[in-house]
Amino acid sequence: MGWDVFISHAWEDKEDIARPLAEALRRKGLRVWYDEFTLTLGDSLRRSIDRGLAQSRYGVVILSPNFFAKEWPQKELDGLVAFEAPGEKVILPVRHNIVSGQIREYSPTLADRIAVSSEPGLGHVVEELLRVIKPASELVLSLLVHQLLKTVSQNLGLYRRWVVSLLQLNLNGVQGRLSHQPTDALSIVHV
């Protein structure tokens, strides 16, 4: 996948929570789809967002009065819901300047999800998100390291065979000039 998280937010929440959260998650090593990091001049906004939604493992949705007042963030949420399979956690809600009861007024099904509040501070939000996101990222890293070690191990076998071949070639050339002492490259290099 292209990104660990897609950050869905209302433009009005950009300064308070969206940008600081996106930057904090990047500093923690996550690949973050955030409009200011990803979009460039001339991009199709809809196609870029669709690609971001489709290629992100999680959607961090910043729920606020501004979020529920806008159409575009609602469409992003609809896209994330479409990618969520039963029993699979994709949507990670962050409550910002809103309480659970207010969310219930906008969306009873969304109010059912456990959300982290931004009230205790950005550090708390980042910590809670990483509890969900980071274990999967660490698993991917572990798999990559395993594959790297496997590749290195396979190449070491090739390297050893290459060294033995070179020694055999060299020893065969030297052997003809030495007295009749049998020389075997494998007795010199233990594979």
Describe this structure in words.
- The chain is α/β, with parallel strands linked by helices and 191 residues long.
- The protein has 2 domains: 142 residues, 3-Layer(aba) Sandwich (Rossmann fold), CATH 3.40.50.10140; 41 residues.
- A 5-stranded parallel β-sheet has the order 2-1-3-4-5, sandwiched between helices.
- It is elongated and about 85 Å long.
- The relative contact order is 0.12.
Mean pLDDT comes to 81
Read across the widest sheet, the strand sequence of neighbours is: 2-1-3-4-5
**How many DSSP E strands?**
5
Low-confidence stretches: none
> What top-tier CATH class of the largest domain fits best?
Alpha Beta
SSE diagram, text form:
Blueprint: E1 3-8, H1 14-27, E2 32-33, H2 35-38, H3 45-54, E3 56-63, H4 65-69, H5 72-83, E4 91-95, H6 100-106, H7 108-111, E5 116-117, H8 122-175, H9 185-188
Parallel strand pairs: 1-2, 1-3, 3-4, 4-5
Tags for this model:
alpha/beta, Rossmann fold, 9 helices, 191 residues
In short:
It contains nine helices and five strands, in the order E-H-E-H-H-E-H-H-E-H-H-E-H-H.
